[in-house]
Amino acid sequence: MIAALFANGVQNVELAEPAADLEPTALQVAICTGITLADGGTAS
């Protein structure tokens, strides 16, 4: 996921959530249920 955030032209990325790595057990699965993007503007 982190690699996808650093696309060409992207200068700064802050991943606010999850605050820690997700560690599902062998009987669990981690599913993304939503994404929120906030445009921080452009660099000068």
Folded structure, characterized:
- The chain has one domain.
- The chain is elongated and about 50 Å long.
- With 44 residues, the chain is low in regular secondary structure.
- It has one helix and no strands.
Topology:
Layout: H1 2-5
Q: Using DSSP, what is the number of strands?
A: 0
Radius of gyration using CA atoms only: 14 Å
Which oligomeric form is depicted? single chain
Q: Give the percentage of residues in beta strands.
A: under 5%
Question: End-to-end span in angstroms?
Answer: 27 Å
What is the count of helical runs?
A: 1
Biggest pleated-sheet summary? none
Structural class: little secondary structure
For this entry, give a set of tags:
little secondary structure, 44 residues, 1 helix
Question: Quick gist of this model?
Answer:
With 44 residues, the chain is mostly loops. It has one helix spanning 2-5.
